[in-house]
Amino acid sequence: MKKYKLSNSITLLIYPVSWIRSVSIYVAVGAGPKYETSETAGLAHFLEHMLFEGTKKFPSSKELAVYLESVGGKSGAWTDKEHVIYYVKTPVKHIEVAIKYLYELLFNSLLDKNSIKNEKQIVLEEINRKNDNPENNIWDLFMEWVWGKQQWAGLSTLGDESTINKITKPQLKKYMDNLYIPKNIVITIVGNMSISKVRSYFYRSFGE
Length: 208
Description:
- Helices cover 44% and strands 19% of the residues.
- It is globular.
- The chain has helices at residues 43-50, 61-69, 95-107, 113-131, 134-147, 161-165, 169-179, 195-206, and strands spanning 2-5, 11-16, 22-29, 74-79, 84-91, 185-191.
- Helix 3 runs parallel beside helix 8 (195-206).
- It has a six-stranded mixed beta sheet, covered by helices on one side.
- A hairpin with a 4-residue loop joins strand 4 (74-79) and strand 5.
- By secondary structure, it is an alpha+beta fold.
- It has eight helices and six strands; from the N terminus they run βββααββαααααβα.
């Protein structure tokens, strides 16, 4: 594996694997319950959802998805206690599309007010499903019992109905401005690729 530090402080890890025909890119952002309070619980997870709802170049979630999926790519994300992970996988010849897609996602999201309103219902339903599933819900209850809601380790990554309903665009924007910054981001790419070409692609999109 090769490790590089871009001039804007993003950490880039590149691991070539010659026997596969695809590339996988994982972006880790230092975010999650560790950076939340009992009043803002669920903010990182909600923002994770919102980043897929449209960007400056691709104003709708459909346009954003088509840009990647039209070349055989796929993407996803998840939120943990101390970080949020965004990933993309594409055929190796479309690696530049994957990198541009991630840049749009992380730095050009619109955070549209109507999308925020709609996403609240989706996240609330996700919380309800979790609460209805003892096998999943018990871990949140256990962590809350051990740490309490005043400690970040005791907060649910999903938040609850009261915190989700209070989320606003300025709140999401402030969260991004504080945490979605280069020095708080690590990008790992694995696959069949040329290190020099991958570096040049990232330099063009994310900065040298």
